Amino acid sequence: MRVIENETFEGERPLYKVRDVIIKDSEFLPGESAIKESRNVQAIDCFFSSKYPFWHHTGVDIQDCYFADGSRAAIWYTSEVFMSNCRVDAPKIFRDAHTITIQKTIMNTNETLWDCANVKISDSDFKGNYLLLHGSDIDLDYFRLEGDYSFQHVKKGVVRNSTILSKDAFWNSEDITVYDSVLDGEYLGWYSKNLRLVNCKIKGTQPLCYTENLVMENCEMIDTDLCFEYSTVQADIKNTIHSVKNPLGGVIQAEGIDELIWDDPELDGSNTQIIIHAKVDR
User: Fold this and answer.
1) What is the pLDDT of residue 277?
2) Taking a C-beta distance cutoff of 8 angstroms, is the pair 76, 60 a contact?
C-alpha cells in the first residue's frame, strides 16, 4: 500500500477516490469531502477539521485520530469501518453506514449512528443525544453513554456490561436484550417490543410503560415509580418497587410493592398476577 505521511490537506476533495493507501501523521484542515468515494484507506494519528471526509467509502481503518468540531458528518454512506483509540468532538459523525466496529474511543457527538446497521462498540465512552436512531443489529460491551433519547427505533441488539444514562432510552425498540447493565433515566423503554433485561439495575421515574412482551430477570428497580403502565410483562424484581400502575397483563414478582395503582376502570386487573416474595438477606 502507498504511504502518505506528514502532509497537510485542505480545500475540496484533495484525496478524492484514492485507493489502497495509508495516511499517517497528517492534518485535514477546513474543506470538504477530503477522501470521498475511496477504497481501502488506513488513517493513523491524523487530525480532521474538514467536513465530510469519509463519504461513500468502503473499507476504512481509523486509529489514534482526532475529529475536531469542524469535521462534522465525517463518515456517511460508508461500510466496513474500524475505529480504535480515537477521540471525536464532531457532531453527526456516522449516518447511513454499516458494518462498523468502534473500540477504545471517546465520543462527544450528537445525532450519530442514525440508520446504521451491524454496529459493534466496546470499551468506549459516548456523550450526546439521539444515539443510534433507527439502528439495527447492534452489539455493545463495556460501553458508557451520557445522553438522552438513545436507541430509539433500534431493531435487534445486545448490550452487555454497560451504563446508560439516558432519558427516553429504547423507545419503540424491538428485540433488544440487555445484560448486567445500569439503565438510569426517565421513561425507559416506552412502546418497546420484546425488550429483555437480565441482571440489570433500573433507575428513574415511570419506566417500561406501553411495552409489549417485556421480560425482566433478576433485576433491581431503584427509585422507580409508576412502572409498567399498559405493559405486558414477565418481571422478577429482587427488591421493593415504589409503585406499579395499570399493567395490562403478565406476572410481576418482587420483594414488595409500596403502592399498586389501579385507576383505569376499563382495565381487567385479573390479567396480571402479583407475587410478593419474603425479603431475604443478600
Assistant:
1) 82
2) no
Q: What is the pLDDT of residues 151-189, one digit of tens each?
A: 999 999 999 999 999 999 999 999 999 999 999 999 999
pTM of the predicted protein model: 0.95
Buried b vs exposed e over 39-50: b needs ≥16 C-beta within 10 Å?
ebbbbbebbbbb
**Grid coordinates of 36:** 470521498
Q: What residue spans of 21-118 are helical by DSSP H?
A: none
Per-residue pLDDT band at 280 (split at 50, 70, 90): very low
Average confidence (pLDDT) over 137-148 = 98
Phi and psi based region of residue 74 (left: phi greater than 0; alpha: psi -120 to 50; beta: remaining): alpha
Element (H, E) at 223: none
Question: Rounded to whole angstroms, how far apart are CA atoms 100 and 110?
Answer: 18
Which helix (DSSP H) or strand (DSSP E) does residue 217 occupy? Answer: strand 214-222
CA angle 140, 182, 139 (to 5 degrees): 10
Residue 110 CB contacts under 8 Å (≥ 6 apart), including other chains: 91, 92, 128, 129, 130, 147
196 grid coordinates: 429483555
pLDDT category at 1 given cuts 50, 70, 90 is confident
Strand partners, 81: 60, 100
Is there a contact between 61 and 80 (Cβ–Cβ < 8 Å)? no
Question: What is the band of 278 on the pLDDT scale with cuts at 50, 70, 90?
Answer: low
Determine the 3-state secondary structure of 231 from DSSP: coil
Strand pairing category for 19-24 and 39-44: parallel
Owner of C-alpha cell 411495552: 211
Burial class, 271, CB count within 10 angstroms (exposed 0-12 / middle 13-18 / buried 19+): exposed
